[in-house]
Amino acid sequence: MPLLENISWAAEEAQGNESSEHAFFSLDYQHVQVPFEITLWIMLASLAKIGFHLYNKLPSVVPESCLLIFVGLIMGGIIYGLNDKSPPVMDSDIFFLYLLPPIVLDAGYFMPSRPFFENIGTILLYAVVGTIWNVFGIGFSLYGICQVKAFHLQDVSLLHNLLFGSLIAAVDPVAVLAVFEEIHVNEKLHILVFGESLLNDAVTVVLYKLFRSFCEMPTIKSVDVFVGVGKFFVVGLGGVLVGLTFGMTAAFTTRFTKEIRVIEPLFVFLYSYLSYLTAEMFHLSGIMAIIVCAMGMKRYVEANISLKSHTTVKYFMKMWSSVSDTLIFIFLGVSTIGENHEWNWPYICFTVIFCLIWRALGVLVLTFFVNRFHVNTITSKDQFIIAYGGLRGAICFSLVFLLPDFHRKKLFIAATTVVILFTVFVQGMTIRPLVDLLAVKRKRESAPTVGEQIHIRFLDHLLAGIEDISGHWGQYYWKDKLEYFNSKYLQKILLREYDQPKSSIVLLYEKLERKHAIELAEAGQLGSNICLLEWPSHLSQAVLLCHSSPQPFYLPESAWMAQL
Amino acid sequence: MPLLENISWAAEEAQGNESSEHAFFSLDYQHVQVPFEITLWIMLASLAKIGFHLYNKLPSVVPESCLLIFVGLIMGGIIYGLNDKSPPVMDSDIFFLYLLPPIVLDAGYFMPSRPFFENIGTILLYAVVGTIWNVFGIGFSLYGICQVKAFHLQDVSLLHNLLFGSLIAAVDPVAVLAVFEEIHVNEKLHILVFGESLLNDAVTVVLYKLFRSFCEMPTIKSVDVFVGVGKFFVVGLGGVLVGLTFGMTAAFTTRFTKEIRVIEPLFVFLYSYLSYLTAEMFHLSGIMAIIVCAMGMKRYVEANISLKSHTTVKYFMKMWSSVSDTLIFIFLGVSTIGENHEWNWPYICFTVIFCLIWRALGVLVLTFFVNRFHVNTITSKDQFIIAYGGLRGAICFSLVFLLPDFHRKKLFIAATTVVILFTVFVQGMTIRPLVDLLAVKRKRESAPTVGEQIHIRFLDHLLAGIEDISGHWGQYYWKDKLEYFNSKYLQKILLREYDQPKSSIVLLYEKLERKHAIELAEAGQLGSNICLLEWPSHLSQAVLLCHSSPQPFYLPESAWMAQL
């Protein structure tokens, strides 16, 4: 209902006869501007996605993220051409408050927890030590470049270089996800790069802020450095704690939604978003919070809510993150166009080079140590892909616009833009051929069989027992303890119907059974008939229950035995 | 990632040692305020809903809408008590742009089209003539009350009374839906009240604006009145046209989403919201637009998108409209508290009385004419429920706040609030007992059988034939023509896989088959086995395909025939 119209309508009316044709139609764009433009942007993003897939060959060569940035560049060019001023840059607030959370939530909710926890040590090493290594490496070497007089960069201080290093060093989860979802490398390799990109958030937050505050301080005391180190733990662990609290509350809330199935999916989104916002509010790592929240609540929420609610949660989450992702890349393209840049070739080129070199060195050194302590080592091919997959994206971009104003900010913006475009376009487009060329181990496409599942389960218990006897408290020991704590206490509090739950193998069997029945029904023609065959132990013959007939058929053993 | 923090953090850092404990934690509420508060409101609404259903008896006596308003009143009281100033009223912009569309979309998408089109004439009569009747009836009789000197209301002009009448006369779809979904009256009665509440939007928009502009004019010419009449058609039919355009575009777009199933559900929401906003922008009826859009696209979109996408659409739509609905009633309660009211007992009491009387009279008179032209008449019990079900709600409330400022606005606000609370609480709570008492025909709970469906189909074709022969072009004739146009042209353009579509009975059979298979699988124990029994025409024996065994079992006819 058009309501907040301005007085113009009434004014037109008042003029009477002459303008009465005009009065039939009137336009009030301002009233609907905000939701209208948001909807149009989302629509553009979605239509662009459909467009790419109409030509089947295009997405198999060029990653979608590149195509989207390209669309953004064109859009930005059009806006720039029409208005003759820079198109609006992506608002950092919109990015961090509205676009990033859906993607991280989706990532956390569908995180394969087994490979993640199996490699948590390696991931943390890459995320924490690796990121610090990159920050200081890039910062100090760029400072070295600044000392060359011919480059006219002597006014860029060490602190500014380190600040720039802290924002350019972090691998971006959105960019990594967009590329790695398309190339299907093996699960371990995927989780190493992707896990690193998620967990480096705490390090990036702390270092970025530390250097930013150092830039504004007259002198830096050594105590400030220690505060920075302490703050890293607060930001990271605080985020985990916030996420855990909200995740458990979410699971507990879904215990009581049996009567109103319709709002069940809502709680998954509300609690995880609240965990993110709360963490943000206290300057903790929002990404850590939402990931922990999603991973923590998943198994309990899944058990509590109805199957259809769960389908809604799953599909809506995928849809939302896909839209966010699309918007981010388009905005990235749009924001690139304009007059925000200061070109200094040496600085920009050396930034790209140092980003590549320090990442490669970091992965080599860290993997050397990781491989010494693990039986299942990371091959040199995998190391190459880890180093090469260190894509930068919208987080760097938003961070660089948040820098306090100083005279070289536009140089940093230009360098960041080039690094992002270089990594997304050059590395993103060549990584698939390289994976093919190197014959990197791929993801297995089929789900594990029941037999494999039984063996994995059995081995877990066996290894937990061995670890307990040998006194070595490794991952299997802790996993076993956690599982015990979960079934003894958590499930009783958080699950609605808690009787001794069915073993996961029984559940899997039931699921397969159901799936198969649906497939059979879908394949069947009208003349076919679904039947259930049973061998009750108290009867010597098989019973066939068919839904077209009210009474069961009894089949004598002889009819079967001949064919078995 | 907490980014837009103010400089305070850096400042704290700069102070060094003393404040370094504080620097570990810092709070920046302002940064996350908007999304945080929205999320909290939605959370409150959802938790309130869960709360009601924990006590099973409460929602069966008191409608949920009343409980929610009550929660809102308490919340408003708390805010008023703490701040000592009126709590914020529901923003009309937020209501019309964000809260109303999901509810109307849900209503349109799940509108039972058969009863709706069968009764479209009656619904339009109630919605157009009935609403005009109520507006003028209430307006003129309140003007009469204003002439009584003892009431001190002589400064309220006739135009102001008519303006008030135009906003208080319209039955509210949100309130009607909330109450009628719980009382399960028969389909015809439901669609009459609900259809009226939706379609009266165009009338309300036009009359409200007309009187509002008249209030601001020095003199009113007769031509202005004709413009008003013309405008009604523009607003109503324009809304229909906008909705139809977007609905068909939506259906067409989903033809191309096969490769990216994940964003399919999005288009349903994007296009319908765009239709609403576009209609709003041109001052047409947004409600009509979104309803037509939803009804128009439904059958094509359903055929184009995947089953899981459709589940997502359905459940998300229900969830969203449920949340909007909840928020509206809570805000209604919150906004009631405060100092926006001017109490004038006679005016307020007579408003309530006139609303009741004019609606009852209107229904009686209009139904008298309707019954003269229909075989399937509206019984007097049904008439009573139609009159009694004329609930007012948030639309009136938002409209009254949008009135231009004049000295008696607070009186109108008070009267509107009382009418809404009276209809929602008194009528809403007594309608269920009354439906029981009068033994109003209820909704049938079971779905029609295949036999019934065949008969209905057959009768439709038969009646279309009879109408064609007799030269009387009634609803069956037009329905048949529309169906022909649809299968001949529309489906070819809008559906992805267009070969002669399966008859709806075949689809129903397949659905039943699938459902049954799932039930069988879920009921089956581990020892059981799903099999598919077929009688291929080229074999003399039945074939049993069981998923536990790779090769089929062949059953000789003799094994069956004995038992059939």
Automatic annotation (TrEMBL), chains A, B:
Cation/H+ exchanger transmembrane domain location: 43-435
Subcellular location: Basolateral cell membrane
Primary localization: membrane
GO biological process: regulation of intracellular pH; sodium ion import across plasma membrane
Transmembrane domains' residue ranges: 61-82, 94-111, 123-146, 158-179, 191-211, 232-253, 273-294, 315-333, 345-373, 385-406, 412-435
Membership in a protein family: Belongs to the monovalent cation:proton antiporter 1 (CPA1) transporter (TC 2.A.36) family.
Stated name of the protein: Sodium/hydrogen exchanger
Organism: Strix occidentalis caurina (northern spotted owl)
